[in-house]
Amino acid sequence: MNAPEDTPRSRAALRQPGGRLFLADGGIETELIFRDGVELPDFASFDLLRRPGGEELLLRYFCRYTELARRHGTGLVLESATWRASADWAARRGCYVAELARINRRAVELLVELREEHERETGLPLVVSGCIGPRGDGYVPDRSLSADEAEAYHGAQVDALAEAGPDLLSAITMNAVGEAIGIARAAGTTGLPVVVAFTVETDGRLPTGQPLAEAIAETDASVPDRPAYYMLNCAHPDHFAEVLAQGGDWLARLGGLRVNASRSSHAELNESPVLDEGDPDELGRLNARLAASLPGLAVLGGCCGTDARHIERIAVHCAPVFAARGR
């Protein structure tokens, strides 16, 4: 993998966490499919960048969140629409090496352009994250990659994303530590900050059964430059609140949450023909409770089943928590 040019953006210090609330968007695929009526086989939102009018659809989606951040005066982290934009998933959509690299770059460029406009008009920070998803099913560790295999597999996507000038790279919905380590190694060669987001089951453990604290410690110990911070995504707060309440030094490494609207397990979500939107206001209150007990949290957003309504309530309930921190 090749490091990007030594530009102010590529070598910039991490812009979050740091005391300010940074919202993130919701569940892009579920929002586009269930609320906007967009067909996304394999949850492959990157495919919109191959369709007429697809960029406009993505921009409308992302602008819902820039407007929300503007209203609440918060920072914002946006993930590129590339969770499925790695070789195996792309091949299922008839997309191969050269086109795939172009799409990964364009997905980031779209957000970089939006970042410049948003920051110029509002003075509020917008962080662009190049998103990397698992090689296999995000819910099931069905492709048990070693760290070396993951580094080799994800390297091409890492390079393409980094070339387009994001603020950081994020490994999202990691269900096994080997793949997380491999992506972190690959991303670490770019000079960009790297974030790893693990997903957990209803017992607060990774789908492999590994405790979250152990997964974070193993990843930190296995990469030359440890991730900037960790996140949890694709789980309801009830699934991991008890684990977080147990305490431990590892909690200082937890910088963000992107939660599901539903309390259902991953297996139940996979089998459900309808979207479980949960209770947006309750989700906001649960996030605020966690933010109050975990001062290292900075990024709060959504995953499956969430949309701008959920993120709005997260902003309403969490903004006072962050305001109190600054007193």
Protein architecture, described:
With 327 residues, the protein is α/β, with parallel strands linked by helices. The protein is 45% helix and 13% strand. The protein has helices spanning 28-35, 54-72, 87-92, 97-122, 147-163, 177-188, 212-222, 237-245, 266-271, 280-293, 308-325; strands at residues 22-24, 75-79, 126-132, 168-174, 194-198, 229-233, 254-259, 299-302. It has an eight-stranded parallel β-barrel with strand order 1-2-3-4-5-6-7-8, surrounded by five helices. Helix 8 (237-245) links the parallel strand 6 (229-233) and strand 7 (254-259). Helix 5 crosses helix 6, helix 6 runs parallel beside helix 7 and helix 10 runs parallel beside helix 11 (308-325).
What layout of secondary structure does this protein have?
Blueprint: E1 22-24, H1 28-35, H2 54-72, E2 75-79, H3 87-92, H4 97-122, E3 126-132, H5 147-163, E4 168-174, H6 177-188, E5 194-198, H7 212-222, E6 229-233, H8 237-245, E7 254-259, H9 266-271, H10 280-293, E8 299-302, H11 308-325
Parallel strand pairs: 1-2, 1-8, 2-3, 3-4, 4-5, 5-6, 6-7, 7-8
The domain tally reads 1
Q: Mean pLDDT across all residues, rounded?
A: 92
Low-pLDDT ranges: 1-12
Structural class: alpha/beta
Number of strands: 8
Q: Give the CATH topology.
A: TIM Barrel
CATH superfamily membership: Homocysteine-binding-like domain
Strand fraction band? 5-15%
| Level-1 CATH class name | Alpha Beta
By CATH, the architecture is named Alpha-Beta Barrel
Helical coverage, percent range: 40-55%
